[in-house]
Amino acid sequence: MAAVATPARADTVCEWMDLAAKVETAGVAAQKLVVRTGVYDRAQTQVALAMFEALNAIDHRYESYVGMTAHDPRASQDAAAVTAAYQVLLAHFPSQKTSLDEGYANAMEGVTDSAARDAGRRLGELAAQAALKSGIVDPAVTQVPYRPRTAPGVWTATELPVFSPSYVAQKPWILSRIDQFRPAPPPALTSETYTRGFNEVKALGGKSSKARTPHQARMARYRINADMLPAMRQVTDQVGRRLVDNARLFALYGMIDDEVMLANAEAKLHYNFWRPVTAIRNADQDGNPATESDPAWEPLINTPNHPEYPCAHCTQAAATAELMKREYGNAPASGVRISSLSLPNAVVQVHPTWDKWAEEVSASRVLGGVHYRFSNEAGEKMGREIAREALRKVMRPLRK
């Protein structure tokens, strides 16, 4: 039991999650994927899950997600986590075998106790096998390609949405059904809610808007893609956290994010609601005298190639906030530290609370001209529901 009391290197999980992101980025670039196919969508989540299961088999603190029963407190936590991550990455990205083999060998050489290293390797291999069988595409679900909706004989845009048919066929990690938390329909085009949302995004989100401040324009661009690593390291670097705690955080984060993407894609394709650029240019046909057409209106940022409702960024941010509040508290002493992958040389931005950050992510989608506020609110609600469902159902702490 002395192996349990001796802490492993605190950054092992973070290091291999960082590596997983780099390996996936290289893999996607090599395949020149424009539309995601489901092949790599869950690779990073499976890496985190495999490390969690391997570490939990040593430092037994949570319910296993995969039902793993192997348990060896003498095994090396580093060897178990590294092996689990390596095996999952190798299964997904065999073309990068040489570099993965070298990295794995270097990491394992750091574990000098051969018996503990071998025991950790065995647990890591078992955990990787189990993780690779979880969250996969369900062969029983028929994958139906997207069909553009238009009247017979009438032209419509021919570029298909970025959602692959595999989205609706992937097995949920947490939800009993993909549409479990599908929001109510968007408001009627003649309603007060729609009118208010329409006029707000038209005024604030246009490329040549005079109502938007320079700061708001910068934030619309800054928050297109978040870099969560600074915030994750805030949590994982806390004194007293164990490797299994950190692996569980990454696994939950990945599962919730995957679930959000599935649920959001399902709802978007179900409602097929028009984006502001379409609505504003065609407002003379919406039956609402309180909305005015602007045939030349353009959004500040590029409109994503999929339906509008609900807002995906808002769903993801709210879900992440709900998870991190549970893990770290809503208002950490050093603030919520998140950077951006959207702007070159972006620096970390500090927010007072997780809820404030999620609120500002939602606002940025209106400021960018790609969402209505009612779509943001629907997404936020769905994201928080999904996160709470995950925390209620999976990898719960064991009672000691």
> Which descriptor suits the 3D outline?
elongated
Largest sheet: 3 strands, antiparallel
Strand content: under 5%
What is the percent of helical residues? 40-55%
CATH C-level class of the largest domain is Mainly Alpha
Q: How much is the average pLDDT?
A: 91
Number of helices: 14
Please state the structural category. mainly alpha
> What's the domain count?
2
Low-confidence spans: 1-9
CATH architecture name of the largest domain = Orthogonal Bundle
Number of strands: 3
CATH-defined topology of the largest domain: Vanadium-containing Chloroperoxidase, domain 2
Alpha-carbon Rg, integer: 23 Å
Overview of this protein structure:
The chain has two domains: 2-132, no CATH class; 173-393, Vanadium-containing Chloroperoxidase, domain 2 (Orthogonal Bundle). It is 51% helix and 2% strand. The protein is built from 14 helices and three strands. It has helices at residues 2-5, 12-31, 43-56, 77-92, 97-109, 114-132, 192-204, 214-222, 229-236, 243-271, 276-281, 312-328, 354-367, 373-393, and strands at residues 226-227, 336-340, 349-351. It has a three-stranded antiparallel beta sheet with strand order 1-2-3. β2 and β3 (349-351) form a beta hairpin. Mean pLDDT is 91; it is low at 1-9.
Summarize the structure.
The protein is an all-alpha fold. The protein folds into two domains: 2-132, no CATH class; 173-393, Orthogonal Bundle (Vanadium-containing Chloroperoxidase, domain 2). 51% of the residues lie in helices and 2% in strands.
